[in-house]
Amino acid sequence: MLPRHRHGRRLLPTLRPLSTAATPTASCTSPPPIPFPDAACPSDADPASLPADDAIAALPSLADSAGSAAALALFRRLAARPDLRCLMRLYATAATTFVARGNLPMAHEAMRAMVAAFAAAGRLREAADMVLEMRSHGLPLCVETANWVLRVGLQHPACFPLAREVFDGMTRSGRVCPDERSFRALVLGCCREGRFEEADALLATMRQQRFSLDYTTCTVVVHAFCHQGRFKDVSELFRRMSEMGTPPNMVNYTAWIVGLCKKGYVKQAFHVLEEMVGKGLKPNVYTHTSLIHGLCKIGWTERAFRLFLKLVKSTSYKPNVHTYTVMIVGYCREGKLARAEMLLGRMVEQGLVPNTNTYSTLIDGHCKGGSFGHAFELMNKMKLEGFLPNIYTYNAIIGGFCRKGHIQEAYKVLRMATSQGLHLDKVTYTILITEHCKRGHIMYALELFSRMAENGCHPDIDTYTTVIAAYCQQRQMEQSQKLFDKCLAIGLVPTKQTYTSMIAGYCKVGKSTSALRMFEGMVQHGCLPDSITYGALISGLCEESRLEEARALYESMLDKHLVPCDVTCVTLAFEYCMKEKISIAVSMLDRLDKRQQAHTADALVRKLSTADNLDAASLFLKSVLDKHYTVDHVTYTSFINSCYNSNRYALASEISEKISKRISNFQKKDATAIA
């Protein structure tokens, strides 16, 4: 039922719930603002300043005496009053007043004002119900008002479900059909909420109905596609836009370039730039800055600098503060601080003022290089120039001290930051938690972890992973499993590092079955294991002599074109050699490249020799030599010395003779080749 408002009156019949039924559409064009006419106002009082009941009651009277325009002007003033802004009776009275006089556009304006006010107060559902209730009072729903509910709802993340419900109601009713603006608004909302499958379905429907995207929506969709790595879909989207007469503009192309650079696909980004220029679109400084950032990110700093110089020499546009900062970041990442300082000087010469981000970047670079004195000089300089260090600036210094193991100095800087009213962020907490975990101070790390949540700075998956890894290092798998389960419970998505830490931890304590379950869960959730993940699990299975399972994982890793580390190869091959299954150990080398074949063979022979398993070492060495693999001098010497120490002179002589013959055959081949 319509709730009783604080004045105790019910204005309208019982409200119906949000439904799909609609009455015929009416025009919703809003009239221009009209000033409140002085003649319409009683001489002794301004209706807008009256008590709530009297002010609302003045609306119909004013409409009768001075017309709907005067009533609308009064309504606008009343709707701005804090005590009336969220009073349903105001909007219902205004709408019914305008409907009674045939001014439907004014009535719809009242409804839209109500939607905006109630949405800001978290009461959008009430407003949407009232919009639909007004149909029974002569105000038919129109697409403009429905779109207003949709757009306002999408501005408030908590109201997304209701906005979606309004859109679906429009779609089902068939009387008030969503238009291009309806679809665009919901596509934007879905992308912002991360509901990419829903956005795809909406885009497909738009194509069927020949609705086009505007440039703003296109940019958001491009960002969403790039975030998912769906770069081919961006190309298809641009093609369809061109077919429908709205070809993508420079901003849309730049969004594509930004997305590619963020994922490290810089070469492809330059191809997109060529396509963009080929269509007559001129890249701006932001386009070039994105490319410079991408080049620096993959370590091609000198190429980035050449592009930067083109901007400097350009007559169309010049590098801005952001461009300089990006280039400085690139040089700092490579430890080229002299060049970074040179760019800072050049920036000032060009009349650009370095901002907090520029200084923080340089400070971070000096801290990584251990030049803390220079870092503090820069911080003082930025203060003198009117730029206060922010938490990112302090994080750079705190992180630098922690990397050098000076945790007490890090805490001194932390106190400086808090004394200036700055609040610790996730990065600050994670830096300190990581350092305490490295030192084995798990209790200190947990204390920071708890304080982090108490201060409203909720740990992300990286912070959880740091603590989980620390527990795993200390073989406290029960605690690490509890934290892992908590991550899932609160909706955090474990990363590759999270899973790998858990797998390695279970293998350390001899629970390879639990490690295998964790590995299976990792794959099921779409998190792809890397060679480190495989290596940890293979080592754990080898420790428990589960060689066939370990070998199956090894083969699976190679099938996925992952390169196993030398330790993984040697560990598995060593266990097979110890079981006198030399042929399997040798066959493992066949799928490796020549460099890894040589490294694995050398390491395995040395490990077998050290373990005094000379029979297995000799069999493996013979098999390796028969396959024309090479062993280095250190490996050969290690084996021969082990034979002498064990009085296995005949075995030493046999292997020496085999190697000598092989060397002689190589020399003959070389001589023949020269002749």
TrEMBL record:
Mind telling me which Pfam families this protein's record contains?
PPR, PPR_1, PPR_2
Q: Where are the PPR repeats?
A: 179-213, 214-248, 249-283, 284-319, 320-354, 355-389, 390-424, 425-459, 460-494, 495-529, 530-564
UniProt entry keywords in alphabetical sequence: Repeat, Transit peptide
Q: Which organism is it from?
A: Urochloa decumbens
Q: Which region ranges are annotated with the description Disordered?
A: 21-46
| Stated family | Belongs to the PPR family. P subfamily.
According to UniProt, the name of this protein is Pentatricopeptide repeat-containing protein
Question: Which InterPro entries did the record assign?
Answer: PPR_rpt, TPR-like_helical_dom_sf
- SUPFAM superfamilies from the xrefs? HCP-like (SSF81901)
Q: Where is the composition biased (Low complexity)?
A: 37-46
Q: Which PANTHER family match?
A: OS03G0856100 PROTEIN, PENTACOTRIPEPTIDE-REPEAT REGION OF PRORP DOMAIN-CONTAINING PROTEIN
